[in-house]
Design a protein that fits this description.
By secondary structure, this protein is mainly β. The protein has one helix and seven strands. The chain has one helix spanning 19-26, and strands spanning 31-35, 57-61, 65-74, 88-95, 100-106, 118-126, 129-136. It is globular, with a radius of gyration of 16 Å. The chain binds zinc ion. Zinc ion binds next to loops.
Length: 138
């Protein structure tokens, strides 16, 4: 059949540490791990705070806003399911909470994307998962 793995975009395979992140994303909420000991956010999720190593961490809703910290434009599909998307933007987004996520910038031509642009989260549904992506903030 043509509906094989090559024609579908990959979906997240949550680890025990990242499961709350992906479950919240399905509800179009962006959650971030935050340390109760030092009050700082960190990413990617971990059983211990990346700043002070405290195991006292919980999940807090992100404002979902930030800026483009850095980006590249992909002109070649590295997975067959992305053939129709090129050129597209892969960006490191720095959220206002201070953590950085690797994601895509949607809805803006790649040539118009700039570092420090304000962005906000949006979600792309994919085979039962929902992936946090970013678009230009109004
Ligand atoms: Zn900490």
């Amino acid at each position: 059949m043509s509906d094989d793995k090559r024609s579908r975009k990959p979906v997240p395979r949550p680890s025990p540490e990242s499961l709350p992140f992906w479950e919240a994303a399905k509800e179009r909420r962006l959650l971030l791990p935050r340390c109760n000991a030092c009050s700082r956010f960190f990413f990617p999720p971990s059983q211990r705070c990346r700043h002070c190593l405290s195991p006292d961490v919980n999940w807090v809703a992100s404002k979902g806003t930030g800026r483009v910290y850095s980006f590249v434009v992909y002109h070649r599909p590295y997975h067959p399911a992305f053939e129709g998307d090129v050129p597209y933007v892969v960006a490191i987004v720095e959220l206002d909470e201070g953590v950085r996520l690797l994601s895509n910038i949607l809805g803006t031509p790649p040539e118009d994307v700039r570092c420090d642009m304000r962005v906000r989260v949006t979600f792309e549904d994919r085979d039962g998962a929902s992936i946090p992506m970013f678009e230009l903030a109004p």
